[in-house]
Structures are given as C-alpha cells and as structure tokens.
Specification:
This protein has helices spanning 40-47, 53-62, 74-82, 125-128, 136-143, 200-205, 211-226, 277-302, 305-317; strands at residues 31-36, 64-70, 93-99, 102-107, 119-121, 146-157, 166-168, 174-179, 192-198, 234-247, 258-260, 265-267. Strand 11 (258-260) and strand 12 form a beta hairpin. The protein is α+β, with helices and mostly antiparallel strands. The structure holds flavin-adenine dinucleotide.
Length: 319
Amino acid sequence: MGLFDDGAQCISGATRLAAHAVQRLGELATLHPWTIAPTAAVEDRNATTWKKDEDEADVTRTLKLMGAVGVLSMLALADALARPLDVRINTPILQARRRGAKWDLRSSEDEIGEDFQALVLAVPAPLAMPLVVESPDLSNALRGVRYRSRWVLLLRSDRPVPLPGYRRFQGSPIERVAAMHSKPGHSAIGPQRWFFEADQRWSLRHEHEDAETVADLLLDNFREHAGRSVMPNYLCAQQWHHAFVETPAMSPRRIECLWDDKVQHCVCGDNVVASQVDRVHRSGVDLAGAVVAGLTYRSGRSGFSTVGRDFEQLLEAQP
Ligand SMILES: Cc1cc2nc3c(=O)[nH]c(=O)nc-3n(C[C@H](O)[C@H](O)[C@H](O)COP(=O)(O)OP(=O)(O)OC[C@H]3O[C@@H](n4cnc5c(N)ncnc54)[C@H](O)[C@@H]3O)c2cc1C
C-alpha cells in the first residue's frame, strides 16, 4: 500500500527535534521542510522536467511552507529519535507498582523482570489511569483530562486527483487533506496517497459507525472536493480514540509536565499540553529536566548517585 502518515502530518510550530535525531553516516536528514504548490496544476508541472528558468522562479515564489515533516515518514523521524534508547514496542504495560524505592512493571505477557527508578507516562489519560494508582496527586490531575476521537481515511489512487498537497476545508465532513506523494522524499509520479482527517463534530456524530461506512461517506465527500470521480485501489478508515486533547491537566508553575517526587512518577505529552508534536516534545524536555532534578536531589539524600549522573549525562549529550 506504500507509506502513509496516518496521524500527525507536519510540525507547524518551532521545534528543535531535528537536533535530537540520531542519523547514520550518509543518511538523509530525517526532518525536512514541507512546501506545497498552491494548486494541483502547479504541483503536476513540478513533477515534469523544467524547460525555462523563469518557470521555476515563478513556482518557488508561490510555494507555501506547511511545516517540518519526517523523511520518509513521521515514523522514520520517531525511529531516528529513539535510536539511542532501549525501546520495546508491542509491550503494553498493564500494571505499575512501587516495590520499596523501585518501580515494578507488568505487561500483558508477564512481569518485566527489571527494577526501574522512575516511571514516566506519555500515554493518553484514559489509558494512563490504571498506571497512576501509586500517586494520588497524578490520579487527581489526570481524572479531568478529556480527549476527542477522530476518524481519518487513507486512500491510494492511480489516477491523479486535482487537489494541492495540503488543504483545509470549513463546514465539510473532511477537515483537511494531505498528500503523502507531495512530501519531501516522495515521487510526485505514480499512484497518489492521500490522508483525510474528518471534522471534529462529524467524527463525534459517527463515533459508533463502522469503518466501512465511514470510508464510503468520506470518499463521497472527497469526490465532491475533487470535482470528479475517484476510484481508489486502497481505502482504509481508522478511528483515533484519543486523538486530540480537549481539556489538558493543569501543570504547576511554568513547566509543562507533572512530577510526583514522592514516588518518582511523572506524566508528559498531550495530557498536559495541546495536541501538537512541537508542544509534546517541549513537555518531554521539561520532564527530563524535572527527572534529573528529582533524582539528583534524591541521590544526594539516599545514595542513588549513578542514576542522577546517568540522566545528567544524557541531557548534556543533547544539543
Ligand atoms: C489524526 C491525527 C492528526 C494529527 N495531526 C497533527 C499534526 O498535523 N501536527 C501536530 O503537531 N500534531 C498532530 N496530531 C497530534 C499529535 O500526534 C499528538 O499530540 C502527539 O502524538 C502526542 O504525543 P504523545 O507522545 O503525548 O502521545 P502519543 O503519540 O499518543 O503516544 C502514546 C504511545 O503510548 C502507547 N501506549 C498507550 N498505552 C500504553 C500502555 N499501557 N503501555 C505501553 N504503551 C502504551 C501508544 O500505543 C502510543 O504509541 C495529530 C493527532 C492525530 C490523532
């Protein structure tokens, strides 16, 4: 089916994420600016060979910067960020308990046989609630956090659709469309890959609908926007249950995370800030600072000195 970004499409706010990505020698940078042409016609011309220098100048003048995107996908950016870390995917944590001064975690499989000094949660509040039982303060803070669900549709079409690579719509079941084939690192020639995000109220109204019905409804709406028939050779509707935060938790002072020093337990991400990649990244950076401060202070009192140093070294290594 080819690559699709099925969640975040681009990072519009200022971000220093690129500085944290770990690149291999000779590898393309994983974060690139994404510019789009104002109309599909200009985008098509972009994919053909230039005949005149003036043409290129014309198009360059009208290109619009949408933000930064991961290359070849947003997932590739996440991979580059995670490279120096010990990440275990497909390991849902079902239980988190304090045992003495350590954390004991259980996944669906079994107990994770390691001691953890601190527990950071960057998962939507409704999923985090069973994991914060050891901290009444964090439980209280997360109890009021609300998320909105959202339907998205992924579509592939052999025949080009006459729409620019990114567009927002008002008062329509589809709120925005984004073309994977117009992102940096992708060829504008060949099958087109489209992402549609349904409008928030429309998503709520169709919350309990099945994916097939939603796919058909959104496809009909896309045909209206495209102004002609679209015959997809791949179509998949997906529901994000905790897509965008409606009411984030209040964080104390000016740091954008929650930290319970008594049990070395913290929460970051869009539980605390708006659902935007640049904001959740800053929340994570704030959290790293809080953890360093908390563990360093504790190490002075209780002798866990290596932990404090490890975290400090990690932060010092970051640009
Ligand atoms: C459809 C859509 C489009 C978006 N578009 C944009 C955009 O264009 N630009 C932008 O800036 N932002 C966008 N966002 C918002 C952005 O994606 C989020 O704000 C951001 O991903 C939140 O990051 P996070 O790390 O806090 O949490 P998440 O990205 O939600 O990550 C949480 C992770 O925790 C895992 N998890 C959950 N429970 C457990 C458990 N018990 N044990 C272990 N792991 C668990 C989940 O599987 C997931 O991988 C979009 C979001 C959606 C849904």
